Each structure stands twice: as C-alpha cells, then as structure tokens.
Amino acid sequence: MIKFLLMVNKQGQTRLSKYYEQVELGKRAALEADMVRGCLARRKEECSFVEYKDYKLVYRQYAALFIVVGITENENELSIYELVHNFVEVLDKYFSRVMENQIMFNLDKVHIILDEMILNGHIVETNKNRILAPLLALDKMAES
Amino acid sequence: CFYFRLTLSNNTSLFLQQAKYISTCIDEIKQELKQDNIAVKANAVCKLTYLQMLGYDVSWAAFNIVEVMSSSKFTYKRIGYLAASQCFHEGTDVIMLTTNQIRKDLSSPNQYDTGVALTGLSCFVTPDLARDLANDIMTLMSHTKPYIRKKAVLIMYKVFLKYPESLRPAFPRLKEKLEDPDPGVQSAAVNVICELARRNPKNYLSLAPLFFKLMTSSTNNWVLIKIIKLFGALTPLEPRLGKKLIEPLTNLIHSTSAMSLLYECVNTVIAVLISLSSGMPNHSASIQLCVQKLRILIEDSDQNLKYLGLLAMSKILKTHPKSVQSHKDLILQCLDDKDESIRLRALDLLYGMVSKKNLMEIVKKLMLHVDKAEGTTYRDELLTKIIDICSQSNYQYITNFEWYISILVELTRLEGTRHGHLIASQMLDVAIRVKAIRGFAVAQMATLLDNAHLLTGNTQRNGICEVLYAAAWICGEFSEHLEDPMQTLEAMLRPKVATLPGHIQAVYVQNAAKLFATVLQKHEGETDSQVAQETSQLLIERLPLFVQSANLEVQERASCIIQLVKYIQKLQQKNVEVADEVTALFAGELNPVAPKAQKKVPIPEGLDLDAWINEPPSESESEDEKPKSKAVFAKEEPKHSRRHTEVDEKELARRREVRKQEQANNPFYIKASPSSQKVFDAPGVEHIPVVQIDLSVPLKVPGMPMSDQYVKLEEERRQKDKADKKKKDKKKKREKRGKGRKADSGPESEEDITPAQQVDIVTEEMPENALPSDDDDKDPNDPHKALDIDLDKPLADSEKLPVRTHRPEVLKSPAEDRENESIPQESKKKSSKEKKEKKKDKEKDRKRSKEEKKKKKKHKEVEEELMESQPEEAVQSEDTKEMAVPPTSAEASDLDFWLSSAPVPPAAQVRSLTLSPPPLLIPLSVCRVVNERLFCISPSGLSRFLTSLCLFSLLFTGLAHFCLFAYACFS
After folding, report:
1. For testing the chain A interface, which of B9, B56, B126, B154 should be mutated: the one with the most A CBs within 10 Å?
2. Which helix (H) or strand (E) holds B611?
3. Is B78 an 8 Å CB contact of chain A?
4. b/e per residue B672-709 (b: at least 16 CB within 10 A)
5. Residue A50 is inside which H or E element, if any?
6. Are A92 and A98 in contact (CB under 8 A)?
7. Sign of the dihedral through C-alpha B922, B925, B930, B931
8. What DSSP letter does each residue of B780-843 carry, written as one string?
9. B27: left (phi > 0), else alpha (psi -120 to 50), else beta?
10. Contacts of A8 in chain B (CB under 8 A)
C-alpha cells in the first residue's frame, strides 16, 4: 500500500503532499524534511529505494524536483517506480512539458490527476487518456 | 500571486518576513471566508489547502470547508473536497455535519460529483461515516459507469477497516467485481481483496480458483503483480496451491519482459518454495531458475535492480542456503559497491552464507571493510553484522572462541561507535557460556582494563567505554583465572575511573571487592601476610573517591565495601583467617537468564500490589498539611514587591500568549514537548558531532593479540584434526570396511571441523513450568484483526447493513439493531429495501446453484407464494431458513477438487454433479471418455459438452432399446 506521495524541490520545499494514512500535522514537517534530506543526500549512482523507519521510500528525480513515495513492505518497489514515471508523463501531457511552478500554481489540478491514479493508497488507473478525462471535462466546463 | 510570494519568502533568511506575511495572509483569508460570495470563499479555501501543505494548522476553517463542499457548482465543490481530504481527520468534529451532503453527492446524477465525493471520503472516512454510508457505497459498486464502480470498490476497503461489520454483507458483491467486464474495476477489486487477504489469508482461500483463472487470462501487469502477491499470501496455508502455481509462474518468469513482474514472480516462487520446503520432491529446477534470474538482476548496471535482486536473494537464503552460497563471489563484490543500501543488503546475505569453514575468512574481509568504511553509520552497521554473523544460532559456526574474543577486542578500537554495549554483552555472553575460554578471556580483559585510558580518550561521548563494564565484570567474576589480580585491582581503582559513567563505576567497585577476595584467598596461609594487608590498605585509600560519587549506586556500593574492608583489616591485624568467609560472599555461579523469564514468574497467591500496606492517609490530614506548609513560607514574602510586579505580569502574560500563538502557527518552530526534552537528557551521542580522526595506522593496544594470527593457527589445527581423524578412520576402516564411506564423501565437510571450544551453557534459566515460546506477539490494536471474519458463512439478518431511513434510531450500532429485530415493526422498515435487493441476488444465486435443490426450491416457492399475503416478517424468517442451507461445504469441496490435480473449473464440476441421470447406465468406457472430456473442458465449452453428453445418452438409450427389441424378436 502507498502511504504518501511527496513532491519536493531541491531546496527541500514541499510542492505537493498527499497522505493516504493520517499523519499528525505537527509531525509532517519534520518527517518531510527528514526524508527529503535522506533522498537529497543520495548520489545519482545509488539506487532509488531507501529504507526509512518502518516503510520504504521510492524516489525519482526530475530536474530539480523529487517525487518521493512511501510504501509498505509488501508493495512492489519496481511497480511504484514505474508509477512515478507514469504520473510525470501524465503531468507532462496535460501541462505540455511540466515545470515546477506549473505544479505550484495548479496544485488543485495536480491533485485531481493524482486522485485519478491513486485512491486510498492503491493504484486505480494508469491509462493516460482515462486519467485526464475528468480534468478535461472540467476545463471544458470552466470555458463554457 | 499568493503562491508566488510565498515561495519567494520561503527562504530561511527571510524567515521573519515570511511569518509576518503569512499572518497577514491568514487575516486576509479570514476576511474572505466571511463573505457571502462562494467564489471568493472557494478561493480562500484553496489558499488554505496550500498553507496546510506547508505545515500550518488550518483546522479553524473546517466549517468553511464544509460550506464550500456543499456548493452546487462542481468547480467549487471540488475545491472543498480537496481541502477536506487534506485537512480533515478522525478528530475533526465538523465531519458529522457532512454525512448528508456526502450522501447527496454520492447519489448525484453527475458521475464526477460522485467521483469527487468518493475520493474525498477515502481520506477522511470515520467509523460513523463508514457505518452510515456503507450501504450507499455498496450500491455504487454496481453503478452503470465503470468510473464510479472502481472508485466505490476501492473505498470499500477503507469502510471495512472503519466498520468491520460491513465486510460480510458487501463481500458477495466484491467477489462479483472480480469478474467485472471493465479491467479497471477488476483491478480495483483485486487490490482490495489482496489487501484484505494479506492480513487474514485463510478466509480467502476459496477464491483461489477464481484468481488462478484471472492470473492465466489477464495481461495487465499491475493486476498480475497484485494477484501473484495474493497467491504468495495464500500458499503457506494450502501447500497444494503452491504446487499448482509453480508451473504458470515459471512460465511467466521465462516470458515476461517487465522487470517488476519478473521480480514479483520470483518473490512468489520463493514464498511458495518456502511453504513447500518440506514434503516436496526437489524443486531445484525452479530454485535454480530464480537464483539465475536474480543473478542477472544483481549483475545489472541498474542499481535498483541490483538492490532488489539482493533483497530477493536473502529470501531464498533462508530455505535454500546452498544454492545462494555458490554466488558468494558476487555478493562479496557488492560489498564494495558505491551505494550504501546495496552494501547493507549484501551484508544481510552474508549473514546466511557463513559456515564453519568460511566464517573466519568472511569476518576477516568484513574487518578490512570496517577499517576502510567512511561513515560512522555504515561502520556501526558492519560492526553489528559481524557480531550477528558470529553469534547466530548459539555461536554455531565459531570453531575457535579465542579468535572470536580477539575479534571483539579488535572491535573495541573503533572510535565513536554507538555499539559499545553490544560488544560488551557479547564478551559477557561468551565468557559465561564457554567455560573453556574463561582463562583466555580474563587475560584479555585484564589487558583491556590496564589500557583503559586508550579506550576512554574522550570519555563521555564515547560509546565504546561500555566495553569496560564487561571487562571489569569478567575479571572480577572469574578472578581465579587472573595471573596478577593485584595489578588488575590497581588498574580498576585508578582515579581516572571516576570519569566513567556511573553504571560502569558501580561494576568497577563491586568487582574490586571480588578481586580483593581472590587476593586474600591467594595469600592466606602464607606466613607473610604483607600482600594481603597492602591490598586492604589500597582499597581503603582509593575507595573514598567513589564514596563521593554523584551516582547513588556507586556511592552505596563503595561505602558498603569500604566498611567491609575496614572490618577485615582489623581482623587481619589480629591474624584471624578471613579469606574463606570473604570469598563466600561471591560464591555461586551466575547463569544467563532468558529474556522472558521475568514475565514468566507467576504472581504469588494472595499478592495484591494495589492494596495499601499501611492504613491509607486520611484526606483531611493532607489538606491540613498543605496550608500549614504554605503559611510557613508565604508569611515571609514581602507583599509590596508582589504588587509591584503585578502590572508587569499582566503584560508579560499577554506577550507570552502572543508569542505562543505565533509559535503554534509556525510549523518550523521546534515545540517544547516533554518527550523531546527527555531525548536531550538521555546520554545519547548521536547529536554531538564527532570529529573523525583519520589514522593511517590502526590503533594498537600493546600486548593484545591480533585476530589474524588465529586464522593461520586455526588452519593448522584443522589440518591436524583432519590428520588425526584420518588415522582414526583408517583404523575404523580396517575394522569395518563398509562404514568408512561417509567420511570420504567430501574433502572437508561441515561435520569434519570440530570446534576448539564448546558452548557449555546453551539454555537460559527460566522459572519452573514456563515455556519460552508461549507468548503472543500480536498487536491488539491492529485494525485488521476485526476483519478476520469467516466469509463463507451465510449472512444472518442481524448483519445486514443499516439502510438510511427517516428515523434516526436505525443508525445505531449492530448490537442495538439486534434488539430492534425483536420489534417486528422496526425491522420491517429497516431493511425492506435492502431485502428486496438481497432477494434478487439470492434468486440469481439460486438459479446458478445446484439443480438438486430444484425440488426443494419449488416447494419453497409455493410456500412463499402462500405467504406473500402474510406480513413481511414471515418472509424474512423464510429467508433465513433458506440461507441456513450452507453453501460452504460445496465451496470447500470445490477448492479441494480444484486443487487435487485435475484443472477443472469449479463451475463445470458443480454442473457435472447435478446432471440428471441418463435413462440407462453409461458403460465404463464412456465414463472414462466423459472424464477425459471433463479434464480439458473450459467453462465456455460447457454447453458444447452438455449437448454432446445428451447425444451420448440418447444414443445409448436408442442402442439399448434396439437390443431389447432385437432380443424380443429373436426370442
């Protein structure tokens, strides 16, 4: 099961956070900072899986942006690794070459995309067109 | 613009500015929230979501979020739900207000409304919400749109967790969804059942045939991974399932190009083989395949694959160490990898790869790595691994304990390690358990004590000084082995000792007394009692230092012992022999105690720890005392100064309040909590920066042996042993020719290596009648425990989900529901709608199920028709009657049949049993044909098979009739 998904930039600022299991607000900042430090410290040639406390972190770096996913022991690491890429591809498709500030300014939309892909800590959808369908419908609604 | 300004000021140098900016922002948002315009409100809530992400508490706006959620316009509703899903949690009280709103959205004609409500619900569902909405979500599971169906299915998992009673009523529908035409829904159902089955696998065994079918037919890798994972959880319960799985899994391993799927398959094959490990003919082929594939992964240049390969390899290691051991070279290579996590995985593997033969060699390599290692964390990890490897299963692989002791002593030279206590406990353990090694250990420990100043270069922050604890204890306890107890005693009483941590000093003092006893014992009987008296004098001189210690334990022990020594000194002066009595103080062996022993000591009868020992002090007394003591001090206080400060205090309190508010709102401010305070008080060393001194030459303590020399010695010893054995064998051979074979089989098999020393004390002490194993470690708070429900049992009426009505009483806990049932009026209303649904389902089930029941059913249907006119409760009882015919036995036998070699889909089997018997007996040969047809049949081919069977029977009836006719004619 996926516990949380974070998007963090190189300076350690959170750009998006989604928790699938309740974490106390006060602990979040410390937790995020700690994890990001762990991931930032790793070099490119090191593997993308980190054991952190009682779960595993799978992270991927895209330019200055890190995507960190926390998963339980029983989740397949490689499939999550692929899912992260899938997520970024979807973002790329929607925003046509996604950038950090696009994510920042369209936080709600990114959340919609994420909610279409992951629900309740499980992968629901991986098909790009189907993921984007509700968002496109929404855009159409806003235009009209 | 809001977001942008935030990022700009998010810089630490502009920290104060940011705090100010945010507080103005929050004020602005508060203003916006007060407005009536929903667009403005939604925008404000949107900003709040962003602030919440940055770590600011926005729970004060919960009600406004609910307002936005209930907007009729989807654009705003969506923002409200997003904010709710981010900010709400079980403790948020306004959630109660949302129940009806969410219900409305769930039943909205717009699929996106429903979708957004479902998504939000998954984040903040509470037990109350789960109970109230369970039925609505269950209905959505059969929605016409797959988009809704898949979401509803996934949400059900959260609902089950929060409201376990919903699992049984919802399960049949969940099962249906496994065969949903839409792959998304299918995968969602697989996900949910996987997650459920992982915790309570035995309840889901009956689904195995269905999953097997899915696995062989599905092409979606995400789904396949989940299904294969599920099988991994099921196989330990049903070994026959494992046998069935091996083949398709190996096929997948061969054919798939997706690494994640390959990895999952390998993992499951390993799990299957573990569950099969006994009682199965060798599956060496599949093990070999797995190991081969993993080797490819490990050799890959992609670090991720390498990591996972090592991870999976460690699983194989547990059951099939032999097949992994052949890849030792590869794993040792990984120890040099740049990536720390890969090195750690490789270390894990080494743990299982050691044998008596290669232990010394592997540990030697690890020691080299210890010298080379850069970070302290990795070095500490290496240290623990070395100790783990050596001490596993009661020092099984250690053949020479002198070598091990010297390894431990070498490890004490590590600067700044945290694991001093680990080394110490190993030293103690070995010295106690291996009696033969005590002499050597004592000698080593004495040198350690002598050179203690090397270990405690920078005392307090050095974890390694824990080793001295063990050293002092060993020297004291086994002091009869000491060559020069006087010298050791002197070393233990050096003034420098007073800088050590308290608990170590205490051990020093106590063991000094033991040494003192030994010295007395040694020198008693000698005419010249000079040495003994000198010793007493030494103790009397040095101990006062410890009596002054701030540590109570040290103080107490020291003052006890100093009195004892003074008394002994007096006796000595009178030439009384005291040695025997002093040694009697420390007589008897101290054996290791099992870790659970304390828990197992039964509480003596009649012991009540809560009872008062003395009469409880009366309430009034204590009340009397308080004002008295207050009065004593309060009177002294000058009154005018108080008045003077009062003005300031008000101001101060106000300021404090403001400051607190600011700090509470600032997530980056480290709040003072009692727990964090404690952490700082503890003598932890992590947060103190340790300066790494890079010494090219490792510190060498004079007079200490190097472990390396033992490797050579051990080699020689083994050679000698072998030679001896061969001689013996030859003798034996001459005597009994036939039995010499075993010794010849390997050049140096495991059994050939005899350890130089044996572990004498293997078992640990336990109180009588206690078993070390009987203890359940299960977490009582695990939410999944409540979901351990037998799903095959028929559903009782009391378990049906509460359905919404206008009456509030219905939304009560199931216990109360049961009460309601006794009142027919209530129960009728409660589930009338759902019952109809259920009935429909049942009707379907019935049609599908055995035709044997047909007669019975007709009977019942007649009854039902008769009863239709009667009140509904009668029907209800009828329902339960029918449900009482359990489908379980049939299903169980299905599973058994499915597992027993023949790959018949269960449906076909059921039908074949229920075929109406042909008019004539079918000859045996035809039976076999039919049987063979059965084996290769698939459900789609079922109808074809049925028709052919009918034809057969017709043919035979015809043939028989013809025969009869012919016979009649003939006669």
Report:
1. B154
2. none
3. yes
4. eeeeeeeeeeeeeeeeeeeeeeeeeeeeeeeebbebee
5. strand A49-52
6. yes
7. positive
8. TT-GGGGG---SSSPPPGGGSPP---S-GGGSS-HHHHHHHHTSHHHHHHHHHHHHHHHHHHHH
9. alpha
10. none
Cα maximum dimension of chain B: 141
Check if the beta carbon of residue B487 is closer than 8 Å to that of residue B450: yes
pLDDT attached to residue B566: 92
Structure tokens at B37: 């315009």
- Closest alpha carbon to B338 in A134, A129, A44: A44
Residue B672: predicted pLDDT:
53
pLDDT tens profile A43-92: 777 888 888 878 888 999 888 888 999 998 888 888 899 999 999 999 99
Q: Which residue of A has its CA nearest to B229?
A: A74
Across the interface, whether the CB atoms of A51 and B341 are under 8 A apart is answered yes
The span from the CA of B474 to the CA of B494, in Å, is 18
CB < 8 Å to A16, chain B: 53
Instruction: Give the Cα separation of B523 and B510 in Å (integer).
Output: 21
Q: pLDDT for B337-360, tens place per residue?
A: 888 888 888 888 888 788 888 888
User: B95: closest CA among B81, B106, B105?
Assistant: B81
CB neighbour list of residue B370: distance below 8 Å, 6 or more residues apart: B379, B382, B383, B386, B411, B414
Helix%, strand%, coil% for chain B, nearest 5 = 70, 0, 30
The residue length of chain A stands at 144
Q: Determine the distance in angstroms separating the CA of B667 from the nearest CA of chain A, rounded to an integer.
A: 7
Give dist(CA B169, CA B834) in Å, integer.
Answer: 11
Residues of chain B in contact with residue A84, where contact means CB-CB under 8 angstroms, are: none
* Mean pLDDT across B576-581: 82
Looking at chain B, the number of H-run helices and the number of E-run strands are 46, 0
For residues B958 and B668, give the distance between their C-alpha atoms in angstroms, rounded to a whole number: 91
Which residue is associated with the tokens 């909205």? B108
pLDDT tens digits for range B236-263: 888 788 888 888 888 888 888 888 888 8
Residue B474 C-alpha from the chain's centroid: 36
**Distance between CA B443 and CA B480 in Å, rounded?**
11
Q: Indicate the burial class of B232 (C-beta count within 10 angstroms; 0-12, 13-18, 19 or more).
A: buried
Check whether B483 has a pLDDT greater than 80. Answer: yes
